[in-house]
Amino acid sequence: MIHNTPNAAPSIAAQLASFAHDLEPGMLPAAVVERAKLLMLDALGIALASSQQDFAHCAYRGLQALGGAGDSAVMGAFAPLLLRDAVLMNGILVHGLDFDDTHPGAITHPSASAFPLALGLAAQRHATGAEMIAAYVLAIEVAARLGAAARGGFHDVGFHPTGLVGAFGCTLAAGKLMGLDRIGLEHAQGVVLSMASGSMEFLSDGAWTKRMHPGWAGVCGLTATALAGAGFRGPSQPYEGRFGLYASHLAARGLQADLSQCTRGLGERWEVLDVAVKLYPTCHFTHASIDAALALRAAGLRAEEVASVQVLLPQGVHPVVCEPVAAKRRPANVYESQFSIHHLVALALLRGELGLTELDAVNLSDPRVQALADRIEHVADPEADYPAFFSGELRVRTHDGRELRWRESAHRGAPGRPITGADIEIKFMRNALLALPRDQALRWRDAVLAADRIKDAATLARTLTQSNTSGAP
Question: What range(s) does the MmgE/PrpD N-terminal domain occupy (predicted)?
Answer without folding.
Answer: 15-252
